[in-house]
Amino acid sequence: MKVYFSLEDFQKLDFAAVTTGTFDGVHIGHNKILEQLNQAAATIGGESVLLTFSPHPRIVLQPDVDLKLLSTQKEKIELLKNTGLDHLIIHPFTKEFSRTSSLDFVRNILVNNIGAKKLVIGYDHHFGRNREGSFEHLKEFGPTYGFEVEEISAKDIEDVTVSSTKIRRALNEGDLETANEYLGYDYPITGQVVEGEKIGNTIGFPTANLVAEETYKLIPMDGVYAVEVQFPSALEQKFQGMCNIGMRPTFSGKFKTIEVHIFNFNRNIYGEQMQIVFKRRLRGETKFDSIEALKTQLNNDMEHARKVLSSH
C-alpha cells in the first residue's frame, strides 16, 4: 500500500476504484467497504484508492465538540495495510477545503486528480460542502464524467450493525467485548512511559504510567482492565498485565492517569514507547478504606486478569 499525505502528491491513475470517508478505527464495517472496493478495482483492471482526511472533519468544523477518535493516524495506516488497499491518500482537511462543492469534489478531485472509473460508497454517504452530495448526485454525475457508482446496500452495512459512533459509546461504557467485536481487533493505546509518584512500588504493585501519544485518542471508561502489553521496539514479545484508568481515589489523586502493572516484569522503561491492548474491564474504580484492603483487591484483580488473559 502506497501512502500519500496530500492529493498533490498523488499521480492520477488510468483506472481507479475509489472510496472516501474518515474510516476512524478501521472496523469490520470499513473492512466490508474495502473488500468491495478491491473487488471493484479487479473488475476494471485497476487499483483501489481510499481518500481520507486529517484532521477529522468534525474536529475542524465543530471545534467546541470534544471528539475522541478510535485510531491515531499512525494506527489507521497500519490497520489499512492489512486490507489489500493499493493507495491511501490522507489529505489535509481545512475549513477552505470543506467549502468544496459536491460537483467540484467529483469532477476535480475524484475524476481529474485521482482518475476514478468506479466509486464504492456506503448507502448513506454524503460529501462536499454542507454534505450536499449524495448517492443520487453521483449517479447523476457518472455518465458525464465517465465513472460508475457501486453502492454498499443498507442491508450489507446493517448486517454487521457497526459504526465508529457505536464503538466509541461501548468504550465510554467500558464494554470492551462489544467494542472489540465491532472493531475486529482488541482496542489499543500507544504512548510514552513517564515517571509517576511511584506509589505502586510501596505496595508491591509497581506500575508504568502511560501518556497517550495523541490527545484526541479515546480513553476507555475509568476502571481496572485486563491488558496485553507490547513495546514497539520489540513487537515479538508480549506481556500480560492489568491497567487502572482513573483518579486513584484511595490516594486522593488530582488528575486522571493510565497505570499498568505488568506481570513478572522488572525493567526500567521510563521514556520508552509502550502499547496496551484492552481485553476486558474487570471492575470500576473504587476508593478503599485502607492500603491493606486495596492490596487484597489488587491480588484478586491480578488473579481475575490472568484468567481472562489465558482464555484469550
UniProtKB/TrEMBL annotation:
The keyword Membrane does not apply. Gene3D superfamilies: HUPs, Riboflavin kinase-like. Pathway: Cofactor biosynthesis; FAD biosynthesis; FAD from FMN: step 1/1; Cofactor biosynthesis; FMN biosynthesis; FMN from riboflavin (ATP route): step 1/1. Pfam families: FAD_syn, Flavokinase. SUPFAM superfamilies: Nucleotidylyl transferase (SSF52374), Riboflavin kinase-like (SSF82114). GO terms for molecular function: ATP binding; FMN adenylyltransferase activity; riboflavin kinase activity. Keywords: ATP-binding, FAD, Flavoprotein, FMN, Kinase, Multifunctional enzyme, Nucleotide-binding, Nucleotidyltransferase, Transferase. Catalyzes the phosphorylation of riboflavin to FMN followed by the adenylation of FMN to FAD. This is Riboflavin biosynthesis protein. It comes from Owenweeksia hongkongensis (strain DSM 17368 / CIP 108786 / JCM 12287 / NRRL B-23963 / UST20020801).
